[in-house]
Amino acid sequence: MLITSGQDFFKEVVDEAIAKRNVQVGPSIKNYLVSVLVHYLDARNLFEQDVNQTTGRKEDETLAEMYLRANQSPLAEKQGLLKKLGDRTLYISGFFGDSLERKIVDIDYYAEMGGAAYAGLASCVHEDTLAQVYKTFSRQFLDFVDVLTYISQRSMVQSDQNILRLYDRYLRTGSPLAREKLAEIGVVTIPADQIKLTKQD
C-alpha cells in the first residue's frame, strides 16, 4: 500500500501497535493516537512554551504547575491546557520513557499527571463521545504508553546499553512490552508479581 501522508503512515503503525499490544479499543481511540503522533511529528510542538493568558509571557512550567493553572483557568483555556498536558505526557512517556527513568522526575510522575489531565478533560467537555475517549486515556494511560513505546522501538538498535535500559524499565514498571522485548533477545526476567513484592520491601 502506498503511504501518501504522515497520517496514513501513523494509522498503519498505530493499528499494528494496538494489535501487537492486544489493547482493545475502538476507532475513535486509534484516531486520537494518530492525531497525537501527527501533532508531534513537528518537534517544535513538543518544546513549545505555554503563553500565560494573563501576562502574555511564555513560561516554563512543571507539569504540576501547568495542571494547577489549567484548573484555575476559564473553561476554554482549561480544556486546551489539559489536552496539551495529557498529550504531551503521553508522547514523552512513550517515546522518551527510558530517559525519564534516569531523571528525578520519572515515568510514574508523567503517568500520574497525564492520567489526571485526561480525567479532568473528560469532566469538562460537553460531547459524550469525546469525554469517553478522554476517560479511556485516563484509565489506560500506561497501556497507551506501551503502544507508543512499541512504535518508537520498532527499529531499536540493540546494544548493551539499550538492553540494560529495557531491563531497568521492566523492573521499574513491570511493563509487558519490556518483558516481551527482553524475551525476544534471550534475556530472562523475574515474574511481574515478584517485582511488586520487591517494590513493597
Structure overview:
Strand 1 and strand 2 (58-59) form a beta hairpin. Helix 1 (6-21) packs across helix 2 (27-39), helix 1 (6-21) crosses helix 7 and helix 3 (63-71) runs antiparallel to helix 4. It contains 10 helices and 2 strands. It starts with 5 loop residues before the first helix and ends with a helix. With 201 residues, it is mostly helical. The radius of gyration is 18 Å and the shape is globular. It has 2 domains: 6-155, no CATH class; 158-201, no CATH class. Strands 1-2 form a two-stranded antiparallel sheet.
Major β-sheet strand ordering = 1-2
Rg calc: 18 Å
SSE order, one letter for each helix or strand:
HHEEHHHHHHHH
Form type: globular
Number of helices, where a helix is a run of at least 4 consecutive DSSP H or I residues: 10
What structural class should be given to the helix and strand makeup? Answer: mainly alpha
Find the count of extended strands (DSSP E, 2+ residues): 2
- How many distinct domains? 2
State mean pLDDT (0 to 100 scale). 81
Cα distance spanning the termini: 52 Å
Beta-strand share of residues: under 5%
Q: Can you give the helix content as a percent range? A: 55-70%
The residue ranges in which pLDDT falls below 50 over 5 or more consecutive positions are 197-201
Question: What's the main sheet like?
Answer: 2 strands, antiparallel
Write the layout of secondary structure elements.
Layout: H1 6-21, H2 27-39, E1 50-51, E2 58-59, H3 63-71, H4 75-100, H5 107-124, H6 128-139, H7 141-153, H8 160-173, H9 176-184, H10 192-200
Antiparallel strand pairs: 1-2
Helix pairs in contact: 1-2, 1-7, 3-4, 3-5, 4-5, 4-7, 5-6, 8-9
